Amino acid sequence: MTSRKTYRQGQILKMVATGAIESQDQLRLRLRQEGLRVNQATLSRDLRELHLVKTPGGYAELRPESVAVASPVGLARAIREFCRDIRPAQSLLVLKTPPGGAQPLAAALDAERWKEVLGTVAGDDTVLIITASVRHRLGTQKKIEDMLR
Length: 149
What we know:
The chain has helices spanning about 5-20, 25-35, 40-50, 65-70, 70-80, 100-110, 135-149, and strands at about 50-55, 60, 85-90, 90-95, 115-120, 125-130. With about 150 residues, it is of the alpha+beta class. About 20% of the residues are buried.
């Protein structure tokens, strides 16, 4: 890791710890005020490497204990809070969320360790759920839809 990257990531951690950062754009602007210019891809990579996730109160560190307490109740709450749309595609499910909602939703899904889910990928407002087959996708979709009721 370069010293520039180490410094930038240190500044990100400091900014998140000292005040609510509600969006990547807000964080990018704060970094620019400190003389650090970063593009969105680099910032997303930094957030992922630092294990920072978007929460209702802004970005925060994803701590192992916060994932450990995720339960079906926690997942159901995350789905009700963040899931705005479900779009099936073969053996994939695409969940749409408000901006910043994808990471906490994907973390809650990952914590469940559903056997039919091979993995998740989270962007800012989209979660991609990868399953092994259309049958597994249908089962996963039903579980999620049941939690929305």
